[in-house]
Structures are given as C-alpha cells and as structure tokens.
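Comment on the following before class.
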Amino acid sequence: MSSAENTARPVRDEDAFDVDALTAWLAERGEGPVTEVQQFRGGASNLTYLVRTVSTSSTNGGDLILRRPPSGKKAAGAHDMGREHGIQAALQPVFPYVATMIGHEPDESVLGSEFYVMEKVPGLILRQDLPEPLAPEEADALCGRVLDVLVALHSVDVASVPALAALGKGEGYVGRQVRGWIRRLDGSRTDDTGDWSDVLAWIEEHQPADVGQVLIHNDYRLDNLVLDEDLQVRAVLDWELATVGDPLMDLSSMIAYWVEADDDDLFQLFRRQPSNAPGMWTRREWVDRYCARTGHAPSERDLVFYEVFGLFRLAVIAQQIWYRYVNKQTTNESYALLGQVVSYLEQRCRRLVTEAGGATASGSGA
C-alpha cells in the first residue's frame, strides 16, 4: 500500500481557469512555472486542483494544491478561501498535521474567483475501497491512530493562537449549528425537497448543551487524511468548515459518513471511505472510544441527536449541491443522483428519530 490512488483528472471545462495567470501569481511567490494542472474528482464543495511546477523550493518537489469555490449560488459564509487558508496557516505551528501554505488571493480578477495555494502532502488517501487488503488488526490500529489525531486537534490550546481564538463565538455552538443548517436547507430547497418538519422539530427540541469549546475540523474522515506507507497520519485536509465549537459535534459529522459493513444497500452507495473493511470500528465504537479518551459522557438520547444531526447536515450539503445541479449552475453528472441521496438521508433521520422513542443507541445500524 505504497502509493495514493491517482484521482486527479483533466480539468472540467466549467472549472477551468487561466493557467498563465496562475503562473504569474506563483512566480511572485517564488514558485513555478506551471507545467500541468489537473482536477481532483469530486469537488462537491470547494474545487481542488493539482498544480505541477518545475519549482524545487517546495519540500515535495513542486507539486501544489489549489483550492477555489464552485460557481453558482453559495450559502452565506461558505467557501471562504481566506478563512480556510488562515486557519491552516495559524494552526501549523501548534498542530503538525497541516500542509504548508503558499498564499491566498482574494482578488477574483486573477483566476475568476478567490483561491489559495498550498504544498501538496505526498502519501496515501484512502478512498472508497482499500487499494490492498488490511488485516483486521491493522485496520483497528489505523482507527486508533486516526482517533489520536482527532484528540490531538481537540487538545490544541486555542487561546494561545489569536487567529484561532477569534473563530470562537462562545457557548451555544450546538444551537447556532442547528439554526444555521436549517437556514441552509430552506435556502436551497428544490421542488423535490422533502418536508423534514418532523425531523427538524425533533432536532430543535432535543439539542444538548455544549460540552466544550475546542478547535474542531467539522469534516473529519479517512478521505480527508494523508497517510504514509506505514499508515501513520501525515496531514489533515479540507479545513473549510473548521471552527471553535463543541467537540462532540465533530464526532457527529464523522459518524454520519461512517458506513458499516452491515448497513443497508442504499447507505452503502454513500460510502466514500473503507469504513466497512474488517477490523474497522463501528460508529458506536468511535463514540465510546472517543469518550473514553476525553472523559465526555453523553446520554443515549444525546447520542441519537448527534447521529441524526450529522445525517441531516450531510443531507443539507448534498441538497446545496443538488440545487446548483437542478438550476444548471453545474453540469457535473456525478451530482445527478443527489436528489435521491437527500431523500434517503431524510428517511434515515426519521427512522432514527422514531427509534429514539425506545432509547435506541447511536450507531445501531439503522
């Protein structure tokens, strides 16, 4: 398992930009010239490009990553490249799992949108399936290392880094998230969007109080990690949603993506990481082991809230992309089934809410 899956492809026409302009911009920062630009598959939120250069100043031989927002309607406050760049730049001295930043450009006239560039961290990114099988004990050990990095992130002394401390808005993070994601759903509805009212009423009624204020990633999962050949974590990617907030809400978003081997066939279609491989932890194991490490002790009903909210949040992310597809703001055919994804997640949330009346524990494989 010595090399990463090459997921970079030719740039989609709708996502192309002026490479000469990028070369000039990089030259001002001692990088380049650019020899090739490719686009990483997906790009469901921000667009991500591999920029190859002949530079030898970078520690990885000149491979860079460029991030920029998608075209079309965007949620207020979303796709803030300056914020994402600034978080990583501030975090790097106190958290070793961050790429080196090259620079941020707020002027949209350069490439047609705001963007930032960082060094590419070489290594393995685990996608939908493992490139080679892992023994169950190796998968278990990998989960342990991934947990170690999450705990380390939540242990960062935010107060000692002014740029990170500024992200915090104080107590009430859970409530702000509930209200914010409901607004995002309302702002991206299409004709086929479900009712959601019963699920949203349950979420609003059962939201727990914050358990703490720490730096959280908000999209922590295997395919946002770069691993070395020994499956040690080298870097955490995609800091778009990072902020200071409740650490259990970080766990909420993580388990929403964690598809287990015995989940139903439709949920299996969502799997973006090899979380179903033998030896990988279950959602409940993630919760229990994280809480054992951190001392948090949420109730069974609170655990249902975290799982339901994580799935709801995932549905809203899919709905926002589906809105852009329906309104022809993107022609990426990989988004053509997202309307069905949102519908399924609505049903899954509703099933968990119904089972919550019987004190069903989170991670029960609903």
